[in-house]
Design goal:
CATH superfamily of the largest domain: tm_1862 like domain
Strand content: 15-25%
Number of strands: 15
CATH topology of the largest domain: pyruvate-formate lyase- activating enzyme
Strand order of the largest sheet: 7-8-6-5-4-3-2-1-9
Distance between the termini: 34 Å
Structural class: alpha/beta
């Protein structure tokens, strides 16, 4: 099985925290969709005839596309790869795009999962972040999705925002839980260099939350969502039973995927590729049959380290058998020796031949994963 990621890099406006590649040049959408479809055809052999299990439209703002755009893309995927084995097809969307009329259109397309970028229900913070929606629109968007027949809805939240308190974060969590969505992703705000919010931080126009507050916010997140019946299946992701993101989970399990569009990454098990981060360069390269991309050949240490980083962060943990079969006894011995102190401290445990974080270990997961990595010999 394999997945397809389609990057839709268009936004009406850019949020001040976002460092994903995007553009406000909506006049290029028609040419871009044609190039995207051509790339899908050009790279048919990349997944080596693996059946497509998941498709993910990410961005940018994929909900800016029209019914005609979606039909053009799905027709190519159906003809080139087939859709019969596909179990999950996700559309990322902005709340203010999800009108009843637009959702009626989506309901007649192959989409069976909607991921809504809400971020917060605090209107003042939404304005600071330059989000296009308000809290009421976010709530209505979920209601509209239900009315259109979607029964697999995910929402994104951000915490550690400027001026955030335990009280405001608690209110966000309570509102999110009340929507009874199937999936919630919650990420701590990061100040990526080059973003407007990073520049605001440097100019001391806003203040970054301290580490103690971050830990309290994360504790509130875990306690509230698990008490509400959500399974904490990955550090930043929670779901109702069996409603985990199949597509994102494929990344964490090392499953092959094809990424199309500017800045999109692909992985075939041995190498990683990524396209140029420019719409105009991307379109030109595709149209001249000279796709602009880079390739990284993953050596043994890199593949081992990626397995550590992607698997330890999930509820399934790291398969010790997989380490042994894929990398050999020396790597398994190394992994267990580096994990020993965390096992003794109750931060890691071995269950059913899988190395997993404990509840205590989740709070220092980055440090644990860093210790388990294999440095150059």
């Amino acid at each position: 099985m394999a997945g397809i990621y389609l990057h839709i890099p268009f936004c009406k406006t850019r949020c001040i925290y976002c460092d994903f590649y995007s553009s406000t040049q909506s006049n290029l959408i028609k040419d871009y969709i044609s190039a995207l479809c051509r790339e899908l055809e050009m790279r048919k052999e990349y997944l080596q005839d693996e059946s497509i299990e998941t498709i993910y439209f990410g961005g940018g703002t994929p909900s800016l596309l029209s019914e005609k755009d979606f039909h053009q893309i799905f027709d190519i995927i159906e003809h080139t790869y087939g859709l019969s084995a596909c179990k999950e097809i996700t559309l990322e969307a902005n709340p203010d795009d999800l009108s009843p009329e637009y959702l009626e259109t989506l309901s007649h397309l192959p989409f069976n999962r909607i991921s809504i970028g809400i971020q917060t229900f605090n209107n003042a913070t939404l304005r600071l972040l330059k989000r296009r929606h308000n809290a009421e629109q976010a709530i209505r968007a979920v209601e509209h999705c239900r009315q259109a027949g979607f029964n697999n809805i995910s929402i994104d939240l951000i915490y550690g925002l400027p001026g955030e308190t335990e009280e405001t974060w608690q209110k966000d969590l309570e509102q999110a839980i009340s929507l009874n969505v199937e999936h919630i992703s919650a990420y701590h705000l990061t100040y990526e260099k080059g973003t407007p919010i990073y520049n605001m931080l440097q100019k001391k126009q806003i203040k970054e939350v301290d580490e103690e507050s971050s830990i309290r916010f994360f504790t509130l997140l875990v306690n509230n969502l698990t008490a509400a019946g959500y399974e904490h299946y990955e550090i930043s992701n929670f779901c109702l039973p069996e409603k985990y993101s199949r597509h994102n989970t494929s990344y964490w399990k090392g499953i092959k995927y094809l990424g199309c569009g500017p800045s999109a990454h692909s992985f075939d098990g041995e190498t990683r590729e990524w396209n140029v981060s420019s719409i105009t360069s991307y379109i030109k390269g595709i149209n001249t049959n000279e796709r602009s991309y880079k390739t990284e050949h993953l050596d043994t240490n890199t593949r081992y380290n990626e397995l550590i980083i992607t698997s330890i962060r999930t509820r399934w943990g790291l398969s010790l058998e997989q380490v042994s079969l894929t990398f050999g006894q020396n790597y398994l011995d190394y992994c267990l020796s580096m994990a020993r102190k965390f096992i003794e401290n109750g931060q890691l445990e071995i269950l059913n031949e899988h190395l997993k974080l404990t509840e205590e270990g989740i709070f220092i997961s980055d440090g644990i994963m860093s210790e388990l990595l294999k440095v150059e010999d």
